[in-house]
Amino acid sequence: MAEIIEINDINAPELDMYRQMHEAQLLHYYEPDDGVFLAESPKVIERALRRGYEPISILCERSDIEGEAAGVIAEAKVPVYTGDSAVIVEVTGFRLIRGAICAMRRRALPSPAELCRDARRIAVLENVVNPTNVGAIFRSAAALGVDAVLLSDTCSDPLYRRSSRVSMGTVFQVPWTYMSTQTADITLLHELGFRTAAMALEADSVDIDDEKLNDEEKLAIILGAEGDGLAAETISACDYTVCIPMSHEVDSLNVAAASAVAFYQLCHKKSK
Fold first, then answer.
1. Is there a single domain that holds both residue 56 and residue 178?
2. Residues 11-28 pLDDT 10s
């Protein structure tokens, strides 16, 4: 049974992970070992636990201990620090979603080759820096048949609190890792056996329902930064440049919305 600890001192060192450190600092918390991340909301915590992530402690509003957070508290079996909502806000600086947040240990990431060994459809994110967009892309990837996600090293971390919460915890269900480059490594993707599809509006773009594109055995769907899109060198190195047909003189979609359309057409239908 979890130990329930009433918060009497918000400056207690065991609360430092929730109180003092921003997420980039938590990333390096146990260096040289892997760091820490914060999973917010019972659903996100539950999905992380089910995927084998190790919990350290839980911060929970008192009213939720026997409510929505009861299940993850019982499963995690770690200390639970608690107080009323005002105390929790004083510790974290924000109001918790559904009253619970869990500090968890990160795990070592696989190499791109390991990640993609058995994959047929992967998403590649290039310089997607908004954690909300990263989370939304992962949610679509999980729902629509993407086997794995690769991120350029300039992308926002999928384990940042906002990313994992927006994804509804699906960042723990879809395998992912980073490439060691600032833009999508097209040479690496080709070496791994993937044909590459850059989502971009270019003169030579093919429609997303192009038959040859959809028939590719192994396909990497490459999505670019909010606003700027993909780097010119990325587009020129890809096997396809792909566009989503638009109406009403709209030229593009938000990257998260575009990912859902692309995954439905190129992954979900292929897997059926």
1. no
2. 999 999 998 778 878 877
